[in-house]
Amino acid sequence: MLDGLILGFHTVLSLENLVLVLAGCAVGTIIGMLPGLGPISAIALMIPITYGFDPASGMILLAGVYYGAIFGGSTSSILINAPGVAGTVATSFDGYPLAKSGHASKALAIAAYASFAGGTIAAILLVILAPYLAELSLGFQSADYFVLMLLGLCLVAAFATNGEYLKALLMTCFGLALSTVGTDLTSGVQRFTFGQMDLIDGISFLLLAMGTFAMAEALLMVIRGPEASFTGLRAPSMMLERQEINDISPVVGRSSVLGFFVGVLPGAGATIASFLAYGMEKNLAKDGDQFGKGNIKGLAAPETANNAACTGSFVPLLTLGIPGSGTTAVLLGALIAYGIQPGPRLFIDQPEIFWAVIASMYVGNLFLLVLNLPLIPYIAKILTIPRTLLIPIIMFFSLMGVYLVSFNTFDIQILAIIAIFAVALRLMAFPMAPLLLGFILGSILEDNLRRAVTLADGQWSFLWERPITLCLILLTIVVLFSPLVRKLFRR
Amino acid sequence: MAGSQKPLKITGALFLLIFAFNGLAADTRSPVEKVHFLIPAGPGGGWDGTARGVGEAMVKSGLVTDVSFENLSGGGGGKAIAKFIETAPRQKNTLLISSTPIIVRSLQKIFPQSFRDLQPVASVIADYSCFAVHADSEFQDWQAVTKQFLSNPRKVKVAGGSVRGSTDHFVIAKALELAAGNPRKVIYIPYDGGGKAMAGLLTGETQVLSTGLSEAIEMHRAGEIRILAVTASERLVDTPDIPTLTEQGFDITFANWRGFFAAPGYAQSHYDNMALTIAGVIDTPEFEVVRARNGWAKLHIEGDAFYNYLVSQEADIGTLMRELGFLRN
After folding, report:
1. Which residue has the higher pLDDT, B6 or A22?
2. What is the pLDDT of residues A303-332, one digit of tens each?
3. Measured between beta carbons, which residues in chain B are less than 8 angstroms from residue A195?
4. Burial class, B316, CB count within 10 angstroms (exposed 0-12 / middle 13-18 / buried 19+)
5. Contact criterion met (CB < 8 Å) for A48 and B78
6. What's the complex ipTM?
7. CATH assignment of B33-126+256-322, given 3.40.50.1240, 3.40.190.150, 3.60.20.10, 3.40.50.1100?
8. Quick check: A282 and A158 in contact, CB under 8 A?
9. What burial class does residue A453 get, using C-beta atoms within 10 Å of its C-beta: 0-12 exposed, 13-18 middle, 19+ buried?
10. How far A31 CA lies from chain B's nearest CA (Å)?
């Protein structure tokens, strides 16, 4: 293992490969910052450039683009509430309020530190646990995914603002309902498409996030007038106080581990990891009621988890040849194009590639931190743009971000409709985060449940027959009833 | 106010960058030797890879000097087809990439158009379907799977990477029907993509995987799964160890072709020129590099022959889907 890591660093620490890591990280960060455009587009567009390189260098560049995109995605989430990539939607829950209250530099710095820590801790876990992880990701069956998503839904209370649980619950159901739009995987039947060809593929998560957050926010700024908009940069310092470091350190540790293991599962991914981490931390925190109002723990948790999940997603890709997400599917295509067979034999046949990618994770994360920290004061200045200019800029980037993913004008119309609905709901103090939670978990929950029932020949015994499922069920019950029990004991 | 200048410049630069990355800047000054590819899906998928691969070979071989790409997703590809037909007078040099699903989806009435509304130019490559089992599986050959299916269909749960009624589903249903089984008894478990279907086979929750050969071949070579049959008419050069269904006594062949279509309403000579361009590219060493890199099997049918091929595949698939109950009429 140590030999392997040394071999990996030997490959990465050549001048050429270091330049490639740097280039990949830089390009990835820029593309990631643009709302909408995520790692899939970034990597797909970079692949042709890599054909001349040797496979290890090509993978190092693409891996750099991947981390960079996730890293950069948090910037637009924090500054303008428009998620750069789907994995950073949860980052805006607390990141944007922080920026709005004048702490943009600090928020960006926390995001950078959290991303770095998440990526690095996950890379360490990857090296130590690599041989066992392949087994773990294949130990998860449809029934387990179903219960895991159920567990995620139980965290919905964490996304309620001011203790308005009923509103949060309603919005979750709304999200679940929206997730049923499009072609049903299990039956092949189109649901709620109203004969619209454009709805066959369903509504994209990013579009929904863009409509409910960025667009709605821009419209609300207009409606509520100057006092609701930014306070500029009240505290330009990006230094953290000792107390703040103490506060977020355990959060970063827990979120790294959670994010990594969720990332290892081929059916989950960075977005779900970030939502789960946010929900978990809110439940654990003593000042949980401050989440959503600019709590640094609420920013650190999803930012750590999404980067850790990205690293985790390399496990099924490299050790099994199974892409667990759209991004890793594109990476798999690149590997095959280089003539490399990812799978259990990669580790033995071409150790230099396996270890070079892992070593590039450490180097890439370090580069991203070094690259991003000095730029933060300049990037944060975006918020000093007068609101008469800033509002149209936010709208422009949201529209463009949505359009550049599909190149379909229908998506822009849907975005406008969603934004108007979201503004109305937000004026009535309905929270938007539970909507997104319900939406992202909904289709995975449904597909896996229906698969599990079919696989069990219509019996429900799958819920307790296997130890993993049973453990997850028990955990769900604990999460669901612990507040009730706590209340009873307090009396 | 001074501080507001820089961010604006940055946004402007980012804006330009997006367009540079997406290759939207199609140059209109070069009237000859120009091809614009319309890809009915986002970047990164099979259609995208094929169009960009062929485009790359065109430029590198010097056959076509000006190549541009446009992605337009939505409606399972229907959005791009509708736009293509609507704007046909402006799409003289455009080639739309498509594949077997265009036939399946028009049969299912997912979109109202069919390949008949476009001008089929040529197919370039094909991916065959294959059926695989876990390396530890008791099934040593396809015969064994059919036997188990006849005695207890519940012991043969089939994983596939796309929705019910898609190619992954009906190809295996037909193969089991040929073994005197009831195709409606096939328990098909759909996953969101070939990768997750593969995971579904490896976790042991399903017994058989029905997928494209290109998606399964690496795991077969790695010894993780065993491909029992492929739907090509004879054994493939790249995979001589995998038997065909035909040689095992099941008379079914199926190719998922990928090919190009031109806009309707132009002169036949223009279509001939386009077909000639594609034929020229396919024979270049540059295309051979792209083909080998991706493990594609060559399937070059052009002009009227391609049209007739589509007509007969549509008839075959239509019959099959009606038999299997995936189509009502």
Report:
1. A22
2. 999 999 999 988 888 888 887 777 888 888
3. none
4. middle
5. no
6. 0.84
7. 3.40.190.150
8. yes
9. middle
10. 8
